[in-house]
């Protein structure tokens, strides 16, 4: 591309997300490309294609300030490689060592033969009490978001790292896996998955070690429009569509429930259609957490306890409850008003924990095609700038050995 040449590009919306952004738009901008117009994500207009696309226009070289920049039909000063308004702070967030060993992807089972109905699991345990050692409730994202108590609807056979001979001593579970998993796994391209067909494809050993001392753990659905964490017992096996945080801290629960964390996740994670697709490495590993405070912990306790009661009493899952919370037409519902108030307290407690002077202006606002009850756009941009500045400061401090 010649100097001062212009370019228009249409791609799937992943062009502005994660690794694709880093090797594409980030590299182009580093080489001198200036984005002058962008569409971050829209549905393809033809009904024959079910996909979200992005569009980018720009020029190689400096573009005069008086040349207008437009992001999603709105005039802006500058456009970032995320295809949205560029804040005052430039650059990408860096991974922080303080956040390692906390957030994990759940287990990749790879074989529906591992999954059993609760009644069958109970029958197997009645037949041989030892089978309880390899049978566990199995939580996926749908159960987490749809069931009022976020409980698993199915169980799973989990031999963990047992040898084939050890696994075979559990007759009924091993027979099921032999009949329904082995025929598929023996043809897998990856040798460990062929050779250890009775084990999960990915056992999440790091996660298991991190939660071993905990009675409960924090989880959220990896793909979700609610992006809200809940506590579950550590005796449950989470699927690969569950993000696990090895903590039972109500302070961390509050922080993960905050608008501060949601905005960070929305900005730096990918999306599946309009739902957040949470990446622990892109979001949590880079997220600069504030110091723990009593106010933040108590706010987390209040949301956890009161939300559980409301969901149980009204038979609402997370998705159904937050559909009401983010609906501007819901104005006379005391429970919904209480949830909004609890989140407001969490946000204010989070800002206080950071030591920031950042007034938040609430209402029903749209960000990345999702309308929510949240702080407004100016509040969001300011929060994201302060978070990125804090991330850079902490990363530099570690590099200097401070």
Précis, in short:
This protein has 402 residues and is an alpha+beta fold.
List keywords for this structure.
402 residues, alpha+beta, 3 domains, 5-stranded mixed beta sheet, 4-stranded antiparallel beta sheet, 37% helix, 21% strand, globular
Task: Explain what you see.
By secondary structure, this protein is α+β, with helices and mostly antiparallel strands. It contains 15 helices and 18 strands. A hairpin with a 2-residue loop joins strand 4 and strand 5. Helix 12 (294-314) packs antiparallel against helix 14 (334-354) and helix 13 crosses helix 14 (334-354). The longest helix is centred in the C-terminal third of the chain and has 23 residues, at 377-399. The two termini are 44 Å apart.
List strands and helices in order, with pairings.
Layout: E1 6-12, H1 18-23, H2 25-30, E2 33-43, E3 52-60, E4 69-71, E5 74-76, E6 103-105, E7 115-116, H3 118-127, E8 135-139, H4 141-146, E9 154-157, H5 164-168, H6 171-180, H7 182-185, H8 191-195, H9 205-211, E10 216-221, E11 223-224, E12 230-233, E13 237-238, E14 242-245, H10 250-257, H11 259-268, E15 270-272, E16 275-277, H12 294-314, H13 318-325, H14 334-354, E17 362-367, E18 370-375, H15 377-399
Parallel strand pairs: 2-4, 8-13
Antiparallel strand pairs: 1-3, 2-3, 4-5, 6-14, 7-9, 8-9, 10-12, 10-14, 11-16, 15-16, 17-18
Helix pairs in contact: 10-12, 12-14, 13-14
């Amino acid at each position: 591309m010649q100097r001062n040449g212009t370019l228009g590009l249409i791609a799937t919306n992943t062009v502005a997300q994660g690794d694709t952004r880093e090797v594409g738009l980030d590299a182009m901008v580093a080489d001198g490309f200036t984005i002058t117009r962008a569409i971050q994500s829209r549905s393809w207009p033809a009904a024959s294609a079910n996909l979200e696309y992005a569009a980018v226009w720009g020029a190689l070289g400096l573009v005069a300030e008086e040349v207008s920049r437009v992001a999603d039909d709105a005039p802006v000063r500058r456009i970032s490689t995320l295809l949205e308004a560029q804040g005052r702070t430039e650059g990408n967030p860096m991974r922080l060592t303080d956040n390692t060993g906390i957030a994990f992807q759940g287990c990749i089972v790879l074989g529906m033969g591992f999954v059993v109905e609760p009644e069958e699991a109970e029958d197997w345990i009645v037949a041989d009490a030892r089978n309880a050692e390899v049978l566990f409730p199995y939580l996926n994202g749908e159960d987490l978001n749809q069931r009022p108590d976020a409980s698993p609807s199915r169980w799973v056979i989990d031999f963990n790292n047992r040898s084939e001979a050890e696994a075979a001593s559990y007759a009924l579970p091993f027979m099921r896996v032999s009949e329904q998993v082995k025929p598929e796994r023996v043809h897998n391209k990856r040798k460990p998955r062929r050779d250890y067909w009775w084990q999960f494809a990915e056992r999440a050993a790091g996660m298991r070690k991190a939660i071993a001392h905990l009675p409960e753990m924090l989880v959220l659905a990896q793909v979700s429009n609610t992006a809200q964490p809940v506590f579950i017992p550590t005796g449950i096996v989470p699927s690969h569509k569950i993000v696990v945080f090895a903590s039972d801290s109500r302070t961390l629960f509050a922080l993960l429930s905050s608008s501060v964390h949601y905005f960070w996740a929305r900005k730096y994670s990918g999306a599946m259609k309009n739902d957040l697709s949470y990446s622990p490495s892109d979001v949590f590993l880079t997220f600069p957490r504030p110091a723990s405070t009593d106010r933040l912990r108590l706010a987390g306790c209040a949301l956890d306890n009161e939300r559980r009661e409301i969901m149980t009493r009204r038979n609402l899952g997370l998705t159904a409850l937050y559909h009401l919370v983010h609906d501007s037409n819901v104005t006379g519902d005391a429970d919904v008003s209480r949830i909004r108030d609890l989140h407001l307290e969490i946000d204010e407690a989070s800002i206080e924990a950071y030591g920031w002077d950042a007034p938040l202006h609430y209402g029903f606002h749209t960000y990345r095609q999702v309308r929510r009850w949240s702080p407004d756009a100016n509040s969001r941009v300011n929060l994201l700038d302060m978070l990125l500045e804090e991330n850079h400061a902490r990363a530099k401090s570690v590099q200097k050995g401070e």
